[in-house]
Amino acid sequence: MSLNSLPLFVRLGGRPVILLGEGEPAEAKRRLLDRAGALVVGEDAAATLAIVAIEDEDAAQAAIARLKARGILVNAVDRPAACDFTLPAIVERGPVIVAIGTGGVSAGLAAALRQRLETLLPAGLGALAEGLFAARSALRARLPDGAERRRAIGAALSAGGALDPLAGETDVEGWLASADRPAARVEAFVLTSTDPDDLTLRQARALAAADRVYHRADVPSAILDRARADAARIESAALPADTGEGQVVDLSMAARA
Predict the structure, then answer these.
(1) So what's the pLDDT on residue 43?
(2) Do the Cβ atoms of 123 and 113 come closer than 8 Å?
(3) Is the alpha carbon torsion for 105, 111, 117, 122 positive or negative?
(4) pLDDT per residue over 170-179, tens digit each?
(5) Within 10 Å of residue 227's Cβ, how many Cβ atoms?
(6) How far apart are CA 231 and CA 243, in angstroms?
(7) Contact 72, 50 (CB under 8 A)
(8) 235: β partners
């Protein structure tokens, strides 16, 4: 499964960004740039990013061409085909930022999803993130092994866990006082479909938490892509006797009738 765009979080504090256009579309982009601390400049300034919010089609296309000729990455309002980057809808909880993008295809859909997420994400989510950041040294001391540390955090942040982010839990110190090495776990699944959208919730969660994914040769890459990006993917005829420590998922396809 290929990505239409690679999501990136760019630090714009004090950096110049070209903004062209007038009216509400341009003002909305200006407010967003101001929130990010960017220095809004005109077309002649040196910059690496630009936003074109010009309503007239000919004028907009001419500006886009001039900017791209200079090697500047352009966001063109209401012209997704001309965009080098898009600006997502944002849900912000302190240092936690959730961005919803549709590649410029439907800003309305992105806004609707943002509104739903606003009701789901607790106000204390930022405090939880800051608490985890502050506890880094103590967590390293308690769990020196990086893989164990990641699994412990993953278990705490899972649904119903001690730090379930959707439950509003923020007592990182209390959790850390009793945090132990997470037990190794192996989950084996026989898949009946090659469509990743047909994965059950349990299967999807297991893949998202796995350290290693053993799989038969006929398991499609679209399924394997649902695993963590840094999870090892190991093709094997069967699950080995020694799977090692950590979270392991074994995948095979059901035999076809």
Answers:
(1) 97
(2) no
(3) positive
(4) 889 888 887 7
(5) 22
(6) 14
(7) yes
(8) 215
CA gap 34, 167 in Å, rounded: 32
The pTM score is: 0.67
Q: Which is nearest to 8 in space by CA: 36, 30, 42? A: 36
Per-residue model confidence as pLDDT tens digits over 223-235: 999 998 888 899 9
Spatial separation of the C-alpha atoms in residues 58 and 64, rounded to whole Å: 10
- pLDDT tens, position by position, 131-176: 999 999 998 988 887 777 887 888 888 888 889 999 888 889 888 8
Q: Work out the burial of residue 172: count CB atoms within 10 Å of its CB; fewer than 13 is exposed, 13-18 middle, 19 or more buried.
A: buried
Complete edge-to-edge strand list for the sheet that includes strand 185-191: 185-191, 247-253, 212-215, 232-235
Residue 257 confidence (pLDDT): 60
- What does the chain come to in residues? 257
Distance CA 28, CA 34 (A): 10
DSSP assignment, residue 183? Answer: P
Q: What is the pLDDT of residue 181?
A: 64
Give mean pLDDT, residues 100-118: 89
User: Two tokens at 218?
Assistant: 């006929």
- Give which of 142, 150, 119 is closest to 245, Cα–Cα: 150
CA dihedral 14, 21, 69, 86 (to 10 degrees): 70
List the alpha helices (DSSP H) in 92-187.
Answer: 107-120, 125-134, 136-142, 146-157, 172-178
Amino acid in the structure at residue 186: V
Is pLDDT at 95 greater than 80 in this prediction? yes
